[in-house]
Write a structure and sequence with these properties.
The chain is of the alpha/beta class. The protein contains 25 helices and 29 strands. The protein folds into four domains: 335 residues, TIM Barrel (Alpha-Beta Barrel); 86 residues, Immunoglobulin-like (Sandwich), CATH 2.60.40; 127 residues; 144 residues, Transferase(Phosphotransferase), domain 1 (Orthogonal Bundle), CATH 1.10.510.
C-alpha cells in the first residue's frame, strides 16, 4: 500500500495531468532566437589507477575542445585514482560537474541512521576538499531506476536533504536529481516533493536519452506505441522543452542533460555500421538539443568505453552497474585507446555551434505529413555567429534529399562545406543524407530554402560505404543516381550509362533474361574486362500498367531494395546506378545497373543437386549449405527485410575454399520494417525460398532457421508449405493453358 510520500507523488502528477502540464502543442518544433551557451557541450570522464590514463584523457579533451566535464565520485574515491584525476582536471582549468553518488547498497540502506551518517561524512569530506573549486555539484543518480540506484522515495529524500544542507552551507551550485530518460511523471513528482520541503536544486538534471526512439528525430514509440506515437509528436525537441517547462513550473528554471549515448550493441541489432551511426546520432542529437533552447548543457556519457564511448579502450566485460548510473573507471590502458568517428563528430559540433544564435528549423512546410511511423524526415537548422551563418542539414536513416531541391545553385556554389567529422568537403554535394553536413556562409549572407524542400520520394541509400559517394543527376528529361569513388568516376559512369548511350537490350539469346524484364551485361567503364548488369522493364501485364504508375519506377525500387539490404548488413550485387525518365509517362523507360556477381551459383541449382544426390561444388556438405542459408535468411528477417520474391533463382551462392557467401538479386519487391518480421511474413519468404528443395532438405533448412534441430516442424508450418506447393503446381498448369497465353498479351 502506498505511503504518504507516494500518495503525494501521485497527487502531484494528477494535478499536472488535469491542468494540462503534460500538453505542449507544436512543442516538437524548436523555438527561434535563443543563444546556444558557449559551455553547451560536455562529456563524462573517468580514469583508472594508471596515471598515464590521466594524461591520455586530458590530451583527448584538449583535442575535443571540450572544457566541461562530469566526473562520478563515490565512497572510497577520496583515496584513489578518482581524487587524483579530479585534482588534475581542476589544475588544467576544466569546469567540473562533480557527480556525487552513493553506492547501491548504501542507497538501499537509506534512510537508516548509519547510512545517513556515512553519507554526511562523505559529503563533508568531499565538499570541504573540492567544493569551492568545482563548477557544479550534482547529487544522486538515476533515482527512477531502483534496480540500478537502490533508492526508495524515502531513501532518496533523506539523501537529498543531507546533500542539499551541506551544499547550501558552502554556497555551491547544486544540480539534480539525475532522473534518467524521458519520464515526466518522475520529474513532476520529485520536484514537487523537493519544492514542498524547500530543497529545490539550482539546476534540474535529466539524462535525456533518445536511444529508445532509435534516431534522435523520431517520435518516441514508447509513448502509446508505434502506431499512435505520431499523434503525440514527442520527439527529442518536444521532450527537452516539456521537461524544462516542468522544471521551471516547479521553481528550477535551468536544466541540463548530464549524460546520454547510443550503445554499439543496440545499433548493431539492425545496422552493421555501428560506429558511423553512433557518430551520426551524436551530431544529430547535439544539434537538436541546441535547437530546443531548453538546455544549458548537454553531455555525452562516457568519453572512454568499449561499448558506448567516444574512445574505444578494447574488449572488456561490461560492469554489472550501468555506466549511466556510475561511470566508475576506464577498463583499458592508454595504449588501447582508439578514437571513434563520434569523437570527431563531437569536436566538429563543439567548434561550430556553441555560442551561436539559433535561427530556426527552415523546412516546416511538410510537418503535417509526418503522421506515420517510421516518420521520414528532412532536417535543416540554421545558426548564426558574429562571423558566419551555419546550416546543419541531414535526413533520417536511409533517406536522401537532392541539394538542388533545397537550395538555389548560387547559394550552393558560395557555401563552404564541413562534414560531420569536421573535415572540409572538396566539392559541392549533390545530395544530403543521414550523416549531417554543415553549410557555412559569411554571417551577413541571406539564404532562403526552396519552397518545396523535401526528400527524394521512393529512394533509399546505404550511406556508409568506405570511399564511395552517391551522386545525383538531373537534366530536362532524365534523373537518377550513381555510386562512385569520386566526381570523375561518377561522370564516367553517367556518360556510359545514360539512357542516350546505354543502348537497347540485345536479342534474347544474348541476354541473361528477356521476358517482362530485359537483363543483360554491359562493359564496366571503370575497369577493362569487368562487366555490369543492366535491368530494364520491357512489358507489363494490363493490371501492372495501371498499378505501377502509382509506385516508384522498377529501377528505383531495385536500387532502394539493394540499398536496404546493404544498409542492414546483407549482401547483394553492388548497385551502381539507376536512371529513369522524369515524366514517368512510359513506365518502361528506366534502368537499374549493378555489378556482375562472378563465380556464383543460383540456389535452385544447388537444390537440384541435393534432390538428385549429386555432390555440391567445392565439396560443400549439404548440411553446411542449408545451415548457412538458414542463418542468412534469418538474419535478413531479424533485420526487418521482407523480400517477397525469395525464390531460389534470386539467391546466389559463391563457394570458395569450403565457405559459402550468399547474395540476393532482383530486389524490387522488398518491403522493410523497423524491427524483425512477424512470423507470417517469415513463412511467406521461406515457402518460396525452399520450394525447389526436397522434403528432407526443406525440413533440415527450416529446423536450422527455427533452431529446432532434430525436432519435427509444427502442423501449421507443414500445412502452409503444402498449400504453397499446391498453389505452385496450379500456376504451372495455368501457364500451359490458352487462357493464360491470351491474358499475357
Amino acid at each position: 500500500m502506498a505511503n504518504k510520500l507516494q500518495w503525494r507523488f501521485i497527487a502531484a502528477n494528477l494535478r499536472a495531468l488535469l491542468t494540462g502540464q503534460f500538453s505542449m502543442p507544436r512543442g516538437h518544433l524548436p523555438p527561434v532566437g535563443h543563444r546556444v551557451p558557449e559551455s553547451f557541450c560536455g562529456v563524462g570522464v573517468a580514469t583508472n589507477p594508471d596515471p598515464a590514463t590521466d594524461d591520455a584523457i586530458i590530451a583527448a579533451l584538449s583535442d575535443l575542445g571540450v572544457k566541461q566535464v562530469r566526473l562520478d565520485f563515490t565512497y572510497g574515491d577520496l583515496d584513489n585514482h578518482a581524487a587524483r584525476f579530479l585534482e588534475r582536471l581542476l589544475a588544467e582549468g576544466f569546469r567540473v560537474m562533480l557527480h556525487i553518488l552513493q553506492p547501491f547498497d548504501a542507497a538501499r540502506a537509506m534512510p537508516s541512521h548509519a547510512a545517513e551518517a556515512q553519507w554526511r561524512d562523505f559529503l563533508v569530506a568531499t565538499l570541504d576538499r573540492f567544493g569551492p573549486r568545482v563548477d557544479i555539484v550534482e547529487l544522486c543518480s538515476t533515482i527512477n531506476r531502483k534496480r540500478w540506484a537502490g533508492y526508495s522515495l524515502e531513501g532518496f529524500l533523506s539523501a537529498w536533504r543531507i546533500g542539499h544542507e551541506e551544499v547550501r552551507k558552502r554556497n555551491l551550485v547544486l544540480a539534480g536529481p539525475s532522473i534518467t530518460d524521458f519520464e515526466p511523471p518522475w520529474t513532476v513528482g520529485i520536484l514537487d516533493m523537493l519544492a514542498r520541503e524547500g530543497l529545490l536544486p539550482d539546476i534540474h538534471t535529466d539524462n535525456l536519452f533518445a536511444e529508445r526512439a532509435t534516431e534522435p528525430e523520431r517520435w518516441d514509440q514508447k509513448l502509446l506505441g508505434p502506431r499512435l506515437a505520431p499523434l503525440l509528436r514527442f520527439n527529442l525537441v518536444k521532450k527537452a522543452r516539456l521537461l524544462a517547462r516542468l522544471g521551471a513550473r516547479a521553481g528550477v528554471p535551468r536544466m541540463m542533460s548530464p549524460a546520454a549515448f547510443w550503445t554499439l550493441p543496440r545499433i548493431e541489432r539492425m545496422l552493421p555500421d555501428s560506429e558511423q551511426k553512433q557518430a551520426d546520432y551524436l551530431a544529430r542529437y547535439m544539434i537538436l538539443c541546441a535547437a530546443s533552447g531548453a538546455l544549458d548543457r548537454t553531455c555525452w556519457g562516457p568519453l572512454v568505453c568499449h561499448r558506448e564511448g567516444l574512445i574505444d579502450d578494447g574488449d572488456h566485460p561490461y560492469p554489472k552497474l550501468e555506466r549511466i548510473t556510475h561511470y566508475a573507471s576506464v577498463d583499458g590502458s592508454a595504449s588501447d585507446f582508439r578514437r571513434r568517428p563520434a569523437f570527431a563528430a563531437l569536436s566538429a559540433f563543439n567548434r561550430l555551434i556553441p555560442g551561436t544564435e539559433y535561427l530556426g528549423k527552415l523546412n516546416t512546410q511538410h510537418e503535417k505529413r509526418r503522421l506515420t511511423w517510421p516518420n521520414a524526415s528532412l532536417e535543416i537548422h540554421a545558426f548564426r555567429s558574429d562571423t558566419r551563418l551555419i546550416h546543419a542539414v541531414w535526413t533520417t536513416n536511409g533517406d536522401v534529399a537532392a541539394a538542388c531541391d533545397l537550395y538555389r545553385e548560387a547559394d550552393l556554389a558560395s557555401a563552404r562545406y564541413v562534414e560531420r567529422d569536421g573535415e572540409p568537403l572538396a566539392e559541392t554535394p549533390t545530395l544530403f543524407t543521414e550523416s549531417p553536413l554543415y553549410l557555412v556562409w559569411p554571417a551577413e549572407t541571406t539564404i532562403e530554402i526552396q519552397p518545396e524542400a523535401k526528400l527524394l520520394p521512393g529512394i533509399r541509400i546505404h550511406r556508409h560505404q568506405p570511399s564511395l559517394t552517391h551522386y545525383y543527376l538531373r537534366d530536362a528529361q532524365w534523373h537518377g543516381m550513381v555510386l562512385a569513388h569520386n566526381r570523375a568516376e561518377a561522370d564516367q559512369l553517367i556518360s556510359a550509362l545514360h539512357p542516350d548511350n546505354i543502348g537497347a537490350p540485345p536479342a534474347k539469346r544474348e541476354s541473361l533474361r528477356l521476358a517482362r524484364n530485359a537483363i543483360w551485361t554491359i562493359p564496366d567503364p571503370r575497369e577493362q574486362g569487368c562487366l555490369l548488369v543492366a535491368k530494364k522493364p520491357v512489358k507489363h501485364h494490363l493490371h501492372k500498367k495501371l498499378l505501377d504508375r502509382l509506385k516508384p519506377s522498377k529501377a528505383r525500387r531495385s536500387w532502394s531494395g539493394a540499398a536496404e539490404l546493404q544498409r542492414r548488413g546483407l549482401t547483394t550485387a553492388n548497385p551502381v546506378a539507376w536512371l529513369e525518365q522524369r515524366s514517368g509517362r512510359d513506365i518502361t523507360r528506366n534502368w537499374y545497373v549493378c555489378e556482375h556477381v562472378e563465380n556464383a551459383v543460383a540456389a535452385n541449382a544447388l537444390f537440384g543437386a541435393i534432390k538428385s544426390s549429386s555432390p555440391l561444388p567445392e565439396g560443400i556438405a549439404t548440411d553446411t549449405l542449408l545451415h548457412g542459408l538458414a542463418a542468412f535468411i534469418r538474419k535478413m528477417h531479424d533485420r526487418g527485410i521482407f523480400f517477397r520474391d525469395l525464390s531460389g533463382g534470386n539467391i546466389l551462392a559463391q563457394l570458395r575454399n569450403g565457405k559459402i557467401r550468399f547474395k540476393l538479386i532482383d530486389t524490387a519487391r522488398i518491403h522493410t520494417f523497423p524491427k524483425g518480421l512477424p512470423r507470417s511474413k517469415r513463412l511467406a519468404d521461406l515457402t518460396r525460398a525452399t520450394h525447389k528443395l526436397d522434403t528432407a532438405g526443406r525440413t533440415a533448412l527450416l529446423q536450422h532457421y527455427f533452431n529446432r534441430h532434430g525436432k519435427p516442424l509444427s502442423t501449421g508450418v507443414r500445412l502452409r508449405f503444402a498449400i504453397y506447393d499446391q498453389k505452385a503446381r496450379f500456376k504451372r498448369w495455368l501457364r500451359k493453358t490458352k487462357t493464360y497465353g491470351y491474358m499475357k498479351r
